[in-house]
Design brief:
Layout lengths: L19 H7 L16 E10 L5 E9 L2 E6 L7 E5 L3 E7 L11 E6 L4 E5 L8 H11 L27 H7 L7 E4 L15 E4 L4 H8 L9 E5 L6 E5 L12 H12 L6 E5 L3 H6 L16 E5 L5 H15 L8 H8 L1 H20 L4 E4 L6 H13 L6 H14 L4 H5 L14 H15 L8 H13 L10 H6 L2 H4 L3 H5 L32 H4 L4 H4 L4 H32 L6 H8 L6
Parallel strand pairs: 11-14, 12-13, 12-14
Antiparallel strand pairs: 1-2, 1-7, 2-3, 3-4, 5-6, 6-7, 8-9, 10-11
Helix pairs in contact: 7-8, 9-10, 9-13, 10-11, 20-21
Subcellular location: Cell membrane; Cell projection, Filopodium; Cell projection, Ruffle; Cytoplasm, Myofibril, Sarcomere
Membrane topology: Peripheral membrane protein
Keywords: Cell membrane, Cell projection, Cytoplasm, Endosome, Hydrolase, Lipid metabolism, Membrane, Protein phosphatase
Amino acid sequence: MASAPIAPYNSSPLGNSSSPNASRESLKMEPLADVAMLPGEERVIDKDIIYICPFNAAVKGKVFITNYRLYFKNTDSETPVTLDVPLGVISRVEKMGGASSRGENSYGLEIICKDMRNLRFALKQEGHSRRDIFEIIFKYAFPLSHGMQLFAFLSQEKYEENGWNVYEPMEEYRRQVLPNSEWRVTFINKNYELCDTYPTILVVPFKATDEDLRRVAAFRSRCRIPVLSWFHKENHAVITRCSQPLVGMSGKRNKDDERYLDLIREANGTTKLTIYDARPNVNAVANKATGGGYEGDDAYQNAELVFLDIHNIHVMRESLKKLKDIVYPNVEESHWLSSLESTHWLEHIKLVLSGAIQVADKVSSGSSVVVHCSDGWDRTAQLTSLAMLMLDSYYRTLRGFQVLLEKEWISFGHKFASRIGHGDKNHADQDRSPIFLQFIDCVWQMTKQFPTAFEFNERLLVVILDHLYSCRFGTFLYNCESARDSNNVRGKTVSLWAFVNSDTSLYINPFYTPESSRVLYPVASMRHLELWVTYYIRWNPRILHQSPVEQRYKELLALRDQYLKKLEELQLSDSTHLTNSSTPNTATPNQHITHLQTPF
């Protein structure tokens, strides 16, 4: 069961909140009949408040804070105005105005969210009326900064399927026909001793010994050695992923690393191994100053190095900030195209997609590739997973896409905790960056260009992003598998996939047509890319009035069903007519109807 009806307030204490106002307010709590509370969710405080809606006038109502969400409901008009915001979505909470502020609704709170919206609330200025609610929101939105647990560890949701079983590494490698005579499975990392940010099961060249792997690890940033991500069953070319080599300013070489890359090349007889460095050339050179670098021609003579010019996490963070400025709360209509261009967001999407296309094309033509950026957990994950999505139709199914995310992003150590900042009040942390959002945007661009190639719909992508922030499920918590293991995430939290797979009908693309051998090459040009309006501008009520794609799908399917029903009725009436008729020629029309092919 996904949720239970909301329970009337039970008078449990407010944790360690010392505010007398908070406990006094808590006694006034009312039953909240129109929102379903989750098992494990508890009411904390109610408060009369004014929501300063950016699309309408100020709205009087009541805000309800639980240990999971902020829920607002208006009380002053017949038209319902509600907000249902998981506290994990909150990036920061600011006080607005002071005790002496003049002007209507100038005193209150501003809540900046991670999902492209901000919320402003006004309160009465008398008696520090916002202190209690500010402290409670701050405490429950950032539990890790207050020595508390994330909601995923408090949730008691139950589902039939255990979502943690969606991805079984050995099962996925067997699907790819691994291990084989060219590639072997190693358990050298079973206790995270080789690399603490890699999974426990790795696939490496058959001829590489575990001792070789240890020596290579010493020459790769964070010990993230080149390991297999995907194996082409026909031509045996592979996608491997890793981090940058530790070349440094002096141009160090490592014979073991050079030989190891040669083993990857030799596995399927690739003439020249292509190394895709996701970074701009100038950044890769600059990384030498901090001990990193790239594979030089002199050391790696059987390899070709290609720089993909994808910028770093800081550039992406600033780009998304600029995008938010032009879409929320109001869309800048008069200079829309130039404003959008100035964010560079679609330009970054283009470069990521373009890089993934190059990787997929090279592997499809029979050559093996190595993909890396600096540490191999941001741009590398974007490139490998998108290339795999283009090459392998399994990952374009609802189930396969879950496996792809679990494998390339979660198990291989994309730093979700650092990039999203789950439960952490340090909103200005320089590690924050929308790398995973950017990947999902690239997937959405592909679904737009190939509307029949994906079994899942846009709703799945939005749900994934919503729960990237919500902290309701354990799926995206922590930076790597070793951290999830030490916090027993699998035992103590529910997986997002248990929720998704409890009602898959919501996420199915009705126009999906399976094509097992088709490689997808999206067009990565600015003319073919578009802003994902139904995600980035979804909080604007004018956008919501536009009919979503899935709604149009459903209408077309309903129309198809009507036509098929009509066709059946015609066939039935015609066969009845044929049975009752004694004229032999009346069979002719029926033959036409029987062979009629519906275009659906």
